[in-house]
Amino acid sequence: MSTSFRSLKIVLCFIAVFFSEAQIIFAETDPKPNVVLFFVDDMGWMDTGVSGSDLYRTPNIDRLAAEGMLFTNGYSSSTICSPSRAALMTGMSPERTRVTDWIDGHWVNRGVEWQAEHSLQPPDWTAKLELHHDTIADLLSENGYRTAHIGKWHLTPRTNDPEVAEPYYPHNRGFEVNIAGNQWGAPGSYFWSYRRGDLEGLEARVQNFPPEEETKGLYLTNMKTNHALRLIQQWQNEPFFIYFSYYQVHTPIQGRSDMVYYYQQILDSGEDFLHTDPEYAAMVEAVDRSVGRVHAKLEELGLDDNTLIIFTSDNGGLDRGDGTPTNNYPLREGKGTAYEGGIRVPTIMRWPGVIPEGTVSEEPVITHDFFPTILEITGSEGSSEQMANLDGMSIMPILKNPSATLGREALYWHYPHYHTQGATPYTAVRAGDWKAIHFYEDDRIELYNLAEDLSEEHDLSNEMPEKAAEMRAMIEARRAEVDAQDPKPNPLYIE
User: Of 29, 117, 342, 462, whose CB count within 10 A is highest?
Assistant: First the structure.
């Protein structure tokens, strides 16, 4: 071998080693991705422009879909808020954590007369997010993330003793900053001073609200958005996780007067609209404007390309049976029921450079999938015990390849309770295009093919008894696997 060739080989080896080490250094010094999670309360599957609403204006939400990925089969972990929130924080399904109803639930609030109308009573379920569960904020904080909770929490036990409630608030569950999160599931008003009324032994105003001079006169959503922008500005040089949990579009249905007037003018035009409530439309637009302001701040600070944005809802839209305050058609019924209108929700994810723009995935995903997904993209780790009990699956394979699948056999929903919107105790399963619901009261199975019958109008259980039995067996196996709580005979029941 010539001296010149040997020298060239040494130089090439040196260059190869240099660039290999440089790649390792760059990989180690790449900034960790930020995560902004928009979690809207009660927003239905049809409540955005990109999903087909003929009234609601949501250009900023629609932009997320145009620049990211829209999931047409996005689901909430429950038909009710608190169970979905516990699933989001832990990656575990409601039947596993036993947070299966909203804090308190209707059983206690409605009283003895209401209880006597129902043949079953709910189990002794867990009306709080137990302290032994690590939250996603706990794990990201341990990994060097700044963490903020803004808005609705609703995982704190309902109590008049502040000392009992305090350990369960967001600022004691991994969140460095907590704005407006406590035990309440809704504000008393979306207008200052956001009060719920007088309560003995516990301050009525939502705890951890900013000082009066910072919020007076502001619409609730605007106030919370101001604080999200302040935190992004403050933390721009550090990785952060912002859980923006809107109180909207939950009752009370109250929109800003200028927006309400705008939508009333449209509705007065004489055209027929699927959505017909101007107050609700104004609330939806307020959420959209908030999303747009946060997105604009990320762009202003050059953080946009390194931020995963997730947009979804805690359960389906509230439809009282008359299309108000929203209409979930073509989905059947809404919040508080076992049907698609109660559990199918808007789901959008945007992350430039990772998620291909303008893509659509038909893969079913669910709230508790966000926990392992966020852990994976941030390089965070959970305890071996908690990870062994995860029900969620990381969505990363789909984000990189929209045609990919998760290989999951089925999704489950377990609600051993009654709800004023019509739900009776049930467990449901979706496997492929098939969905079955088992109702505890009369031991009935309903069977639907969602690919052919999205509105769940044709129960196939009598026509396809073998398929119904197969789906029922899946439900029973799931209950046994997680030791799901069943409702019990109600001694107060009066036939």
Answer: 342
